[in-house]
Amino acid sequence: MGGSEPNPYRASAQGYYSSSGYAAVWAEENTREAIFAAMKRREVYATTGPRISLRFFAGWNFTADHAQQPDIAQVGYSLGVPMGGDLIQNEENKAPTFLLRATKDPDGANLDRVQIIKGWRDGNGELQEKVYDVAFSANGKSANGKSDDRKLGSNGVLPSLGSTVNLNDANYQNTIGSPELSTTWRDPDFNGSEPAVYYVRVLQIPTPRWTVFDAKFYQQELPQDSPLVIEERAYSSPIWYTPEEAAR
What is the DSSP letter of 68? Predict the structure, then answer.
């Protein structure tokens, strides 16, 4: 049987999708048993493609100095629980602290920001969600192309980092962003009586999408009906907080 004609609608729709991503596992050793054990305790994270390294812990006594330790994993395991873990309310009823570090793909783009996404059930039983920019690169590029040190606004909104993407050449420059972001963060809106869940999202600086690379390689016009720039990212497994009453 002869081949069917190309479907332009299918090709156009595929232009909106990104390429496949990766799943990462924090296992104690590179064995089948250790990998499955890590999966069972949910100590895993995923990326949209880049090999970003991500650590995420929750506890009650992390300090700013802990984020500067060479091996924050040692601190994280000793004072808290890792991604995928459960955090039970402490006797002092203080807000939890979170320790995290994200490192760029060695062969990829710099990092723009790290966010913690919190979801919780309020006193009325309604589900809520809030995004916090907890660590970010101050090295950006303003509209006139000059270096611009950005800061978190009083309203909690973080300005855009800018972009170095060159669509015609299908490339970008690591002249903005940071190779690594590390911080300790305390939930400013914590209510010890409300169950909550926290996870980390890491954003890279903007880079060309695969459609731009294909257009450059095959010497075709840039597609106008699909996104041309993407901010690749990584997502951690969540950490759950349970009030003492609900944990009994």
Answer: G
Containing 199, the helix (H) or strand (E) segment is strand 196-204
Is residue 148 scored above 80 in pLDDT?
Answer: no
Per-residue pLDDT at 155: 83
Report pLDDT digits (tens) over 194-218.
999 999 999 999 999 988 988 889 8
Environment class of 25 (CB within 10 Å of its CB; exposed 0-12, middle 13-18, buried 19+): middle
* Rounded-to-integer distance, Cα 46 and Cα 66, Å: 24
Mean pLDDT of the chain: 88
Q: Measuring CA to CA, how many Å separate 238 from each of 48, 58, 179?
A: 17, 10, 24
Cα-trace Rg, the chain: 21
Whether the pLDDT of residue 98 is over 70: the answer is yes
CB contact at 8 A, 205 and 231: yes
Tell me if 158 sits within 8 A of 150, measured CB to CB.
yes
* E strand spans, 62-126: 80-82, 86-88, 97-103, 111-121
pLDDT over 80 (residue 244): no
DSSP state of 57: E
HEC-encoded secondary structure of 126-186: CEEEEEEEEEECCEEECCCCCEEECCCCCCCCCCCCCCCCECCCCECCCCCCECEEEEEEE
Q: Is the pLDDT of residue 108 over 90?
A: yes
Neighbours of 138 (CB within 10 A): 12
Residue 129: count of CB within 10 angstroms of its CB: 9
What is the C-alpha to C-alpha distance for residues 71 and 67, in angstroms, rounded to an integer? 9
Summarize the confidence of residues 41-51 as an average pLDDT: 96
